[in-house]
Amino acid sequence: MQALTLTIKRRTDIYLLPFLSLIFLLNSLDRSNVGNAETAGFTRHAGLAPEDLNDAVSAFFVAFVLLQPVGAALGKRVGVGRWVGGVMVGWGILTGLNAFVRSRSQLIGLRICIGALEAGFYPATVFYLSLFYTRYEFAQRLGMFYGQYAVAGAFGGLVSYFVFRLFPTEPEGDIRAPSTHEPEHEGWYSYQILFLLEAGLTIIAALTAFLWLPTGPKNAWWLKTSAERAWAEKRILIDRAQAENALEVEEEGEELLADNESDEEEAKQRRRRSLSTSKNGKIIGGEPGLNMQDITDAITDWRVWWLLICNITSSVPGIAFGVFLPLVVKGFGYSTLHANLLTIPPFLCGACSLWYTTYLSDRSRLRLKYILYGLTLSLFSLALLVLLPLTALTPRYVALCLLLSGTYIASPLTVAWLSNNMETPGKRAVVLGINGWGNVAGVLASWIFRPEWAPGYERSFGWTMGSVGIAWVGYALFWVAIRGGNGRRGRMGLALVGE
């Protein structure tokens, strides 16, 4: 059976994980490409003011955040494969239309529509991923998946470099000083080609998703035999069944049991019901139906809201730099071409750091410890960016690389903790949708990285440092609260084995 499990994991790692990672990369790319386009004069050539871009980013995240739970629930109900393909086609077309924006209202309207279509994509695909991997296989795979957010920044910088070099709007792809008497440009602007190219890639991947993604392990086309498909689903059921007596067992007590034996028995009953067929006849491997009890359990769980606040404040630098890093680097005094090229190393540092950290997290079965490590590194790097003089270009650039190395760790490990500690699949889906409200950090980021604070963005770094500091305190207090609860239960003989 162990050999069969290894075969299933290997094939799923080869055929499912890379494809999901690819579509999340394109999702992240279409969300953040306005920052790369702005280095090539997007707002100026489109007849917009620089602050219109910030307002459009803010509007995107308002729609994106408000519709997260709705999008997650729809994805789960419709089926992730069909839903992902459909919404990707939609936002791919809208991304291409950014190339033809000529007014503030058009830009904001497009970004709102893209945000509405992308809402729920991440929590729905995370829930989908959890159908194929057990609890202690999950964080590492989630890290590979979420790491595409950083890879998208690097890929976007590379694509922008080549597009702006091959199709320069101005000499050497640079932007001249604004002029009220600028001559009419003939042909395509380089930023227009960028939007259309990335839109085309998204639509191609979306059409492929309809054929590539099964409803669950029992329909996975990469598993060749009925025995493989049956065991792929059953091993997930067994892993969830083990949660009847113990959810996630971790040194820091990252599992909170009920406060008394009666509540604990009620939680067990909910978990047992989740392992049986639901009203529509589907079980966990086939995306079980959602009911009102799942929604009630999710919105009354204090852990969900505490971690949501932590997730919002910890996500500010990651979301901010996903859009504004090209402008921050350009503020160091680099040309448009070099600014986009120099965004690649910081983003790659973020991705590699995340992948290694999630590997350690799964191996040690710890979450909060590594979240605090990442936030500590982010705080140190932000302090350097605030204190270093603007002329210290190399140290400031190294600080950016260190900052992104710690930035992307908190969010996926928070998702892993929530996913592993929710009693039923339905509650888990709703909780992941609520946690998606952490993207309200995008609204904060658009306010913090204001164009009038360029090129040094010292005040922006200061505000970001304050946000990360709040997150560090929040996660630390959550760790203390969880450990304290498990300590009390340990004295009553209810502690989990291995705590």
UniProtKB/TrEMBL annotation:
The transmembrane segments are 12-29, 56-75, 82-101, 107-133, 145-168, 188-213, 304-325, 337-358, 370-391, 397-418, 430-449, 461-482
Task: List compositional bias (Acidic residues) regions by residue number.
Answer: 250-266
Spans annotated as Disordered: 250-274
Any one GO cellular component localisation term in the record: membrane
**Highest taxon above the source species:** Eukaryota
Q: Where in the cell is it found?
A: Membrane
What name appears for this protein in its UniProt entry? (Perigord truffle) hypothetical protein
* UniProt organism field: Tuber melanosporum (strain Mel28) (Perigord black truffle)
